[in-house]
Amino acid sequence: MPDYLRKAFVQAVPKRMSKRTGVLLRGHLRLLVYSSRSTDSLLDVEEAFAELRSHWAAEGGNTGDLLKLVRMVSYRAQTLHTPVASEPAEEASPAALAQFWASSGHDIDELSTFMADVDQEAADWLPG
Question: Most CB atoms within 10 A, among 69, 86, 102, 123?
């Protein structure tokens, strides 16, 4: 996990996260990466997120911070991996991410830094 995602996780995680919530989070993030390559699991992603969000909130976590973390992982997956599906997920586009970020009251400078980090990570993958 890159440092910028580790930092976002540490900022978002509930103070007392149960093992079950950790398993749900890990599973949901894996589904996001998989769904960036296929449209097969879109319903599974929605169901997994609903359960995760419920556990997260019950343990005192901010669901807005959880959604931010999920959007970051989704954007990274779409940027770094060529999807098998013909179109990337709408919520993972740069414009959609910026819209979400601004409407949720998150720091726009943080978004710029995050997107630059992902772009740099993508560039590091290029042969050369």
Answer: 69
